[in-house]
Every structure is written in structure tokens, then in C-alpha cells.
From TrEMBL:
Keyword Signal appears in the UniProt entry: yes
Keyword field contains Ribosomal protein: no
Keywords of this entry: Signal
Listed name of the protein: Reverse transcriptase domain-containing protein
Amino acid sequence: MELNTGIRQGCPLAPLLFMLAVEVLALAITQDPGLTGVMVPGSSSERHVFSAFVDDSTVFLQEVRQLPRVLDLVATFGKLSGLTVQPSKSQVIFLNTAVSVTSYEGIPVLRSGATTRYLGHQVGTGDLADANWAVRIRTVQRRLATATRLATSVTFRAQILNVILLPGILFTAAVFDTPAWADLELRNHQNPNSLESVVINGNKSAQSQSGTTIHAASSGRHWINLDSSGGESATH
């Protein structure tokens, strides 16, 4: 069957068609007897070979010499589906940090101690907690500056931060422990200059110059729990 055209952008069938196509590749890789995945932590026999999230796919191999077989399967899949892998946008990550090659089978190798972005997280063989929190702190700083510049009221600024910043902070905290330096950075941003005395630490309550009452969370790391005079509260 010859492929002559794609689908129209925005077509509601596109996600379903894509999942059907990728499922063929997933089955081909996971059922291939020549591919051995990595052992699942906590299991004595279960191995994991393939993960996919939309068009981001990852193959886990016990031995790198199995990679050519994976590339053969991907090439065959590409001929059938029209979907191809771009080696320049892919990376090989060796769990053996003694490996020093810079590329393998035409695919760049992530150097030992480095990280790369995958599905919103930094992954690799470096210090993942530090790497991920460094990215998160930079995002906090950038968006905090935008909120304080564009928002027209203290309440609006606080609501922006709750909606935009807090989910990202929790997204990182759900996977990685917070290093002491990152905890300090977050607390430093909870100061009178950030939101005109809106953000506070501890269990106490405070009142800003605008008359808005702020209640800090009693436990955990929450950004703001803001009760406005209208009875509305920012979600956290």
C-alpha cells in the first residue's frame, strides 16, 4: 500500500490513528526475542523494554549491541507507516558511566554526568535532583517577574502564581527530593518584594497593604492560600 498523503491538521481522528500506528511498533519491540529490557526495580524477573508517550518513545536495552535490531524494526515500521526516527533528535544514554563514545549507530551519546530533557524532566546520569530543581527555579524566577510586572493587583498576582507556578513545583517535587539549596531558593522568593508582602512562610496569617488576608499552609510546601475579601481562595 502506497502512502500518498497525510491527515489534515487538527483532525480529531489524528490522535487515535497515531496511537494505532505506534502500537504496532511497541508490539514489535516488546515481543522481539532478541531484545532484553532492563530489570524493573523490586522485581526478580520482570523487564521493561519500551515506553511511549505520544511521539516520545524510549527503548530500554540490557546490552547496547541490541540497538541495531531496534533500528531495523523502526526502519521497517517507517516504511509501513511513513513515520521515521530522526537520529539527530534522539540520544543514547549509557547506564555504564565508564563509556566514552560520543555516538553509536549514528545516534549521539549523552556524555557521562550530563542530563537531557524528556517529558518535562531532566534525565541522564548526572545529579537529577539538582538538574531538575535548577530548571524549576529558573522557571519560577522568570514567571514571577512576569506576574509582578503584568498583574494589576496583588490578588491577581497571587492567583497567577498559584495557577502557573505551583503545579510545576509539585510536578518536580513529586519525583525528586528538594535539595537544601532549592528549598532556600523557593523560600527566598517568598519575600515581601515578590508579591508586595503577599507570600509568607510558616503557620501564621498576614494582611497585605491591600487588605487581602493570606493564610500559609500548615504543612507541606504550598505557594499561596489566598482568601480575598470576596471569599474566593486560590487553589493549591
